[in-house]
Amino acid sequence: MLHVDDIKERLQRNPEPTEIADIRNNITNSFSKLQFIEEGHKYYVNNDDGTKTELPSVSHICHMFNQPVDWDIICSRKAEKMGIDVSVLKRQWKENNIRSTNNGTKTHAFGENLMYFCQGKFNEIQDCVKNQFEDGFFIPYGKKEEAVMKFYEDIMKVDNVYPVMAEAQIYTGLKDEFNFKQNYSGTFDMLFAYKMKDGYKLAIYDFKTNASLTNSYNMQNNITLLEPFEDMIDQSLSNYTIQLSAYQIGLMQLGYEIIDRKIIWLKDDGTYEKIAVKDVTNELIDFLK
Question: What is the mean pLDDT of the chain?
């Protein structure tokens, strides 16, 4: 578990370079017109003329490539197989969805604030997790938060990597570089910078709390995403692959080079797995044009 003294020692031994602050400020300022409304999960760009333009989320873009699914039929068949009423199964699904969504939100909040902690910004830790900041420790509650802590413990041991920002917001159409027919917006969990021989390169990481990232039925039956991603199985891992490339495109508008995209899969036993996903920005750009 990380302690304030660990962070202070790291910052004294390896202080944040001015280039990292410049990257952070440039991204924040470049996308300052983006407004996120929690209720309804909506994004708006505040235009210079006082109007607002609503943009679909990255998640919405990703789901465009999923095969259509009739959940009513699936629910009916599953309920019949289980010997229960459809309404009972739908209620169970709803309860599980609420539970997993709330647990995921809590875990992500812990992860967001842990980045502030690792940057030495102890006064920026939010009220929602402030009770976990005690005696200099930032204490994880639950196994998924323990996994988040282990990830940060490991990455903070690497001297050539620097935490840039948490909950980074982007949108396309900033400079009309790609001339998309459909622009979009989104927020990703973590941005890190790696010091390389030829400068600082960026890495986009996203926490995932799914019980599973793959779909065995779709894999066995070769059920794939829709064009242009028909070489990928229709499953969460594929959606997240597209998702991280969509975030990458947002930063490419600013001229940044993204050298790494990883899913940080948080598991129920308190461990995590780093999963590198391939770069599909070219396919996504061509599709959105």
Answer: 94
Instruction: Reduce the DSSP state of residue 200 to 3 states and report it.
Output: strand
The pLDDT of residue 40: 82
Are the CB atoms for 90 and 75 separated by under 8 Å?
yes
Q: At 266, list the tokens.
A: 């948080």
Structure confidence at residue 102 as a pLDDT band (50, 70, 90): confident
Say whether the peptide bond before residue 228 is cis (omega within 30 degrees of 0).
yes
Comparing CA positions, the residue from 206, 260, 244, 251 lying closest to residue 26 is 251
Q: Beta-carbon neighbour count of residue 77 at 10 Å?
A: 11
pLDDT tens figures, 183-222: 999 999 999 999 999 999 999 999 999 999 999 999 999 9
Grouping H, G, I as helix, E, B as strand and the rest as coil, residue 287 is helix
b/e per residue 186-212 (b: at least 16 CB within 10 A):
bbbbbbbbeeeeeebebbbbbbbbeee
- Provide mean pLDDT across the span 40-44: 91
Label residue 273 exposed, middle or buried (CB < 10 Å: 0-12, 13-18, 19+): middle
Amino acid at 87: S
Residues 6+ apart with CB under 8 A from 117: 2, 7, 125, 133, 138
* Token pair belonging to 166: 């948490």
Find all residues with CB under 8 Å of 62, minimum gap 6, and list them: 239, 242, 243, 246
d(C-alpha 28, C-alpha 109), whole Å: 19
Please compute the mean of the pLDDT values over residues 164-182 and round it to a whole number: 91
Q: Is 207 helix (H, G, I), strand (E, B) or coil?
A: strand
